[in-house]
């Protein structure tokens, strides 16, 4: 039965890979343009993204060393939306587009959705990111605005929990620092630092423009031509790397209080960083949370039936250069008991193997989620851009997922989720 399931899955993934494929071209400037024309849709979603995020804190640009304070990529995201003629969001408001931007650990993205004036909106998007403008006065103004945003993050138990776990796992990897940085760190920023970031990481060869919906590749390329992103450019040489953390964990445990209704807790495992292009191991690590304690497992049912966790208890996976982590987080009145049961289940699975039926269900679930993500115009553009920045396509991800076997998962478990690489963080309710 399982062999038949695998064969039918492989046949389906071949059709799915064709369904998620998109047109692409690399311009003479080095910019990659992706387009998924979606007949029957009336809207367009565009995302302009760079492989520059919060972990990019030190690099060499044309032979010169540049060191950045925590929060630089996020700060730059805010500043890119400001032009000498005004805030770009006011321009989008006039066209009726919905626009946004965000920064993650390894990328920064600028995007809009619109049903009209597509060319005009593309000009706003490509124009604001392509023409950086920084002064000491505008930087000082933004430092105050972002300072308020940082305080909001400080009030989020989920964010504080994850950040505390990273600080337990890593002694000096930038993953341990908040994406937005601190009030003190962003105060160190200068126009020269920000211009170095844009020269190095906002170069067309490090970026991707991904569009989906009622649009053609030719229309997207024409927008690039209008905004000076077509012609060849002299390349900048950027070198950067982050050494992998070795040795014992800096901290095994951390505790603090916040105004929460019940204890929040997290347990995270430091794994070997992913080798470049190792999509197979990346997908397997991503599966581990659902294989151990996903909604299809006996452990989850026990924890939920005995009211040991809330329904949001789950596993997560984070990987950037030099760091790789599998974390389990949730709320519980008896968090230590939950962690003990979790570790017992991991050890049992290591000895006895993953349930083949659960593996196939989780694999099908991931497959369905991947396909579901590209049914919407916005997700189609954003998922294609994310894959491109990792040097692959959505079809590559589908093919790699289809090839995974329960034996692969069992092999990974022999080295992953080891107790000696585990950190624990607990947030207790603050006394009123």
Automatic annotation (TrEMBL):
Residues 189-366 form the Peptidase M16 C-terminal domain. It comes from the Bacteria. Residues 70-182 form the Peptidase M16 N-terminal domain. One of its GO terms (molecular function) is metal ion binding. PANTHER family: METALLOPROTEASE, ZINC-DEPENDENT PROTEASE. NCBIfam families: YfmH_fam. This is Predicted Zn-dependent peptidase. It comes from Gemmiger formicilis.
């Amino acid at each position: 039965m399982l062999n038949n399931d695998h064969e039918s899955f492989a046949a389906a993934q071949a059709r799915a890979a064709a369904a998620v494929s998109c047109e692409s071209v690399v311009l003479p400037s080095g910019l990659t343009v992706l387009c998924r024309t979606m007949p029957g849709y009336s809207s367009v979603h565009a995302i302009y993204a760079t492989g520059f995020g919060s972990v990019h804190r030190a690099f060499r640009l044309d032979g010169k060393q540049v060191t950045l304070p925590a929060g630089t990529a996020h700060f730059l995201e805010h500043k890119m939306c400001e032009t000498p003629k005004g805030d770009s969001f006011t321009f989008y408001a006039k066209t009726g587009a919905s626009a946004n931007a965000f920064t993650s650990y390894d990328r920064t993205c600028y995007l809009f959705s619109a049903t009209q004036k597509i060319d005009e909106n593309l000009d706003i998007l490509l124009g604001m990111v392509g023409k950086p403008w920084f002064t000491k006065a505008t930087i000082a103004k933004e430092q105050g605005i972002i300072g308020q945003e940082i305080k909001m993050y400080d009030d989020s138990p989920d964010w504080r929990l994850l950040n505390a776990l990273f600080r337990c796992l890593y002694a000096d990897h930038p993953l341990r620092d908040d994406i937005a940085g601190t009030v003190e760190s962003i105060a160190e920023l200068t126009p020269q630092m920000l211009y170095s970031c844009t020269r190095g990481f906002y170069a067309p060869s490090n970026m991707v423009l991904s569009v989906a919906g009622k649009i053609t590749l030719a229309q997207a390329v024409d927008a690039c031509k209008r905004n000076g992103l077509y012609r060849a450019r002299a390349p900048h040489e950027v070198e950067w790397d982050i050494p992998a953390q070795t040795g014992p964990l800096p901290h095994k445990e951390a505790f603090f209080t916040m105004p929460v209704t019940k204890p929040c807790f997290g347990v995270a495992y430091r794994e070997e960083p992913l080798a470049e292009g190792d999509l197979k191991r990346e997908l397997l690590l991503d599966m581990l949370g659902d294989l151990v304690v996903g909604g299809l497992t006996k452990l989850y049912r026990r924890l939920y039936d005995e009211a040991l966790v809330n329904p949001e208890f789950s596993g997560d996976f984070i990987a950037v250069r030099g760091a790789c982590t599998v974390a389990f987080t949730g709320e519980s009145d008896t968090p230590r008991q939950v962690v003990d049961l979790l570790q017992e289940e991991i050890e049992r699975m290591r000895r006895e193997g993953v349930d083949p039926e659960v593996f196939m269900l989780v694999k099908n679930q991931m497959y369905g989620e991947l396909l579901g993500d590209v049914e919407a115009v916005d997700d189609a553009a954003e998922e294609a851009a994310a894959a491109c920045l990792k040097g692959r396509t959505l079809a590559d991800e589908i093919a790699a997922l289809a090839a995974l076997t329960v034996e692969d998962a069992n092999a990974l478990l022999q080295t992953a989720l080891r107790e000696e690489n585990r950190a624990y963080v607990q947030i207790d309710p603050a006394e009123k």
